[in-house]
């Protein structure tokens, strides 16, 4: 750290790296010192706008520079190895999602973190918008009631050409389909809001895209709190949507967006008072007769009352929080350890879909067949059969 500035570097100079560079710059409290990418010209192109020095790889970067924090924005299959190298140099790491490709990799990186002066953080920007922060706080305090039923949807569209880069569509490069690579954003937010999950029963199918894994997955989930949820992740959905809806004893909390939400994308519909609720339970014809359904929910509710500054859930939000936390010596909450339940969830979803059996979170120990890899080292023909729609 020099002059109160956090020295940052970026490894992997593709699409999302620019968002990291811009988000760091927007804090006004960082200095981008270096970039690295093996593809000719990519590191330089990113570095040039920020006065940073380009390198061909993370090893050369770490040998020459002394960053406080390194963003890893490479394809997912390379995250663990690069993170371990950065940690071995005593630096902190910000891993893009998905942080790693398996629980085994996660635990190896966690071990390297224990032995390092550095820490590992993960990009899950939807935890960091003002709506997500309010939702986590209010649900955590019980102010919105007890969660009962939730729906978590990632209905996105990726054409066949999306899978042209050679790392896409493969277990080795991408690590998994929309469950790991796309739905993981909403899954992470759902788990962040609802707390520990307990069991998953899932299906995953490959309907259209040229991939080794699923292009759609569906899961039904139970939580330790007793709440239940359904989760769907699709890359086949032309009208795109990202949605989490949580029905609690106090009302319905919902966020409806695509790649990032603002406050206006969140709604809370309070549960009706006892008389209205009783009328709502009646036959619709009777309801019309007594007019009870026309009663509007009360204007002032805990959700509306908590409104403040609108912070959209983008890279600026999370990287801004991270830089503030690191510069002020506060712990930053979106650590590798804090995101383990999300990787456990993804692991269990694949395990359940591939084996056809429910999976308990408690089963996911190092001896579990899906601990080492999300495909559970299942033979190729069997794997192919498990993703075939029946
Ligand atoms: N948080 C989000 O909303 C979000 C959005 C998009 C992508 N991502 C994630 O960001 C990561 C990168 O995605 P992308 O779309 O930018 O991919 P990309 O293919 O556009 O860029 C990856 C870059 O990494 C470089 N690279 C590959 N191996 C490397 C290595 N060993 N060392 C240094 N550089 C290396 C490639 O040359 C390429 O320039 C992925 O993990 C992806 O899931 C996150």
UniProtKB/TrEMBL annotation:
Domain of life where this protein originates: Bacteria
InterPro entries the record matches: Gfo/Idh/MocA-like_OxRdtase_N, Gfo/Idh/MocA_Oxidoreductase, GFO_IDH_MocA-like_dom, NAD(P)-bd_dom_sf
Disordered: annotated span: 287-314
Residue ranges annotated for the Gfo/Idh/MocA-like oxidoreductase N-terminal domain, each copy included: 6-120
Domain GFO/IDH/MocA-like oxidoreductase residues, every copy: 134-254
Record-linked Gene3D superfamilies: Dihydrodipicolinate Reductase, domain 2, NAD(P)-binding Rossmann-like Domain
Name of the protein this chain belongs to: Gfo/Idh/MocA family oxidoreductase
């Amino acid at each position: 750290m020099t002059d109160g500035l956090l020295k940052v570097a970026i490894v992997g100079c593709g699409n999302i790296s620019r968002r990291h560079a811009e988000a760091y710059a927007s804090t006004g409290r960082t200095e981008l010192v270096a970039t690295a990418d093996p593809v000719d010209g990519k590191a330089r192109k990113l570095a040039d706008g920020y006065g940073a020095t380009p390198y061909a790889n993370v090893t050369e970067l770490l040998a020459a520079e002394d960053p406080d924090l390194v963003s890893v924005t490479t394809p997912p299959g390379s995250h663990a190895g690069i993170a371990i190298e950065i940690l071995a140099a005593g630096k902190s790491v910000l891993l893009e999602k998905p942080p790693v490709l398996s629980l085994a990799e996660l635990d190896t990186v966690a071990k390297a973190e224990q032995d390092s002066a550095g820490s590992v953080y993960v990009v899950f920007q939807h935890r960091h918008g003002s709506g997500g922060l309010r939702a986590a706080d209010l649900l955590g305090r019980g102010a919105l009631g007890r969660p009962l039923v939730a729906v978590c949807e990632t209905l996105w569209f990726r054409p066949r050409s999306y899978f042209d880069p050679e790392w896409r569509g493969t277990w080795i490069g991408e690590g998994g389909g929309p469950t790991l690579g796309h739905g993981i954003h909403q899954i992470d937010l759902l788990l962040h809001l609802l707390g520990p999950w307990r069991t998953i029963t899932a299906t995953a199918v490959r309907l259209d895209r040229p991939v080794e894994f699923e292009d759609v997955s569906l899961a039904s989930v139970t939580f330790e709190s007793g709440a239940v949820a359904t989760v769907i992740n699709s890359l086949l959905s032309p009208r795109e949507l990202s949605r989490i809806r949580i029905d609690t004893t106090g009302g319905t909390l919902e966020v409806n967006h695509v790649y990032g939400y603002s406050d206006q994308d969140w709604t809370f519909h309070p549960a009706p008072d006892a008389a209205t609720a009783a009328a709502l339970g009646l036959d619709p014809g009777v309801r019309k007769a007594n007019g009870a359904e026309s009663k509007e929910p009360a204007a002032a509710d805990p959700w509306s009352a908590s409104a403040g500054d609108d912070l959209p859930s983008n890279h600026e939000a999370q990287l801004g929080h991270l830089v503030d936390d690191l510069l002020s010596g506060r712990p930053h909450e979106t650590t590798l350890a804090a995101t383990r339940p999300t990787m456990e969830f993804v692991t269990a979803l694949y395990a359940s879909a591939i084996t056809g059996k429910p999976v308990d979170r408690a089963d996911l120990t190092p001896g579990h067949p899906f601990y080492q890899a999300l495909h559970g080292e299942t033979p190729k023909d069997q794997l192919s059969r498990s993703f075939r729609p029946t």
